[in-house]
Structures are given as structure tokens and as C-alpha cells.
Prior knowledge:
Elements: E1 5-8, E2 11-14, E3 16-19, E4 25-26, H1 28-41, H2 48-52, H3 59-70, H4 76-93, E5 98-99, H5 103-112, E6 117-120, H6 125-128
Parallel strand pairs: 3-6
Antiparallel strand pairs: 1-2, 4-5
Helix pairs in contact: 1-4
Amino acid sequence: MTDNHRVLSGEAMPAMLFDLDGTLIDSVYQHVLAWREALERAGTRLSVWRIHRRIGMSGGLLINALLRETGHEITSKDAAHLQKWHAEAYAKLASQGRPLRGAVELLSHLAKSKVPYAIATSGMLESAALP
């Protein structure tokens, strides 16, 4: 049995795991702009290309990588503020995200075919929730 199957009642059954941002939803630029707003609120100004190349990392890793690049030190309290401010900024932009081509049809097909699937994200739950 392969890793992409689960056992249900003695039968192997396929299961799928999808990443939300950039795989199912085109939300990369909304995240870039939200991180820029959060960082600027904290007094750090960065070009969007610096932020963009870090998208896909968890928020904590992204913050650490960007601030290490600029020479800024960050406390866990600062990181928590940045995460919160990113979530607030992203909430204003989230409705602009669009499903990527074929994502809705794929998930619909899996549901009709009774193939279990899960959607994962390294983002905060508030950023992943439907509006």
C-alpha cells in the first residue's frame, strides 16, 4: 500500500491533501500586500518583491527571514503583532482571491467520487476561513 492511500474497512482508498494558497486559491498577491501593510505598521519598509519571494513559508518563518534580511531583531511579542496585523490586512483583501483554474471542479469531482480530501494551510485559521 502506498502513502497516498488510507485503509477503510480493509480496503485501500485514495485520499488527497491540498495546500490552500497558491494551489487552490490565487491569493499570493493579497498575502504579499497584507504582509507589506503589517510590516510597515511595525516600521519596516520592504519592496514587495522581497516579500513575494518568501510567500509559501509559514508566517513565522516569513517574518524571521524578512527581518533577518533587514538586520532587525524580533521578539515573540513583535511576531505575534505582525501575524495579527497580517490577518487584519488580509481580511480586507481576501475577497479578491479567486479559485485557480480547475480547483472547484476538482474538489467537486472528488466529493462526488467519495474520495476523501483535506485542505491545509500554514496560514492562520482566520485567513483561511470563508468570508
